[in-house]
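Take a sample.
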Amino acid sequence: MTYEPVPLPDRVQLSPEASLRSVRAFRDHMRKRHSVRDFSDTPVTREVIEACIETAGSAPSGANQQPWHFVAISDPAMKARIRQAAEEEERAFYAGGGGDEWLAALEPVGTGPDKPHLTTAPWLIVVFAQRYGLEDGQRHKHYYVPESVGIACGMLIAAIHHAGLVTLTHTPNPMKFLNELCSRPDNEKPVMILPVGLPAEAAVVPAMAKRKKPLDEILSVF
């Protein structure tokens, strides 16, 4: 392909005052986002999930190669297989495989090897990063894969919250079992599982999760 410029197709420019109002409203909305482990089994339509993933697919990426693939799962039997495989890895992790320092860091989060959210949530979205591309049997390099997929995941999580749903970034280690269960090729590396749905009536979050660093700790201005 060769470079072909086209006029900027969309403009969403606002006045300075409207810009400040808009971004503050978005900030306040995103502050209501929480990582939830207690899900309701209330159904969520496929159309909502697809719209969230379409949002993620619009993310910027290195050389516009879009090195990601999303697998959306609502089938109860498949969710059960993923939970079983994930909990096997988690039991090894919490039995000492994760190391004392890592396990100590997780104590305030209240996590453990049991992952009921993987079967209770109406949807699981498994995110894969394409380490390299395949076209007509030929392998070609992808650029800035972790950065690109990370941006897409952030946009996906924001879209899920915007849809009035909750999610959780679940990362069993290792995750190679997901390639086989999701029928994905070897050039794709599983990055995370996102259970998606509504929170349970009795949902809780760890108190420490509400402690966010203040602006003066995360921002430098020159």
Remarks:
- Residues 39-201 form a domain with the NADH Oxidase fold (CATH 3.40.109.10).
- The longest strand covers residues 188-197.
- The helical segments are 16-30, 46-57, 76-97, 100-106, 117-120, 145-162, 177-181, 215-218.
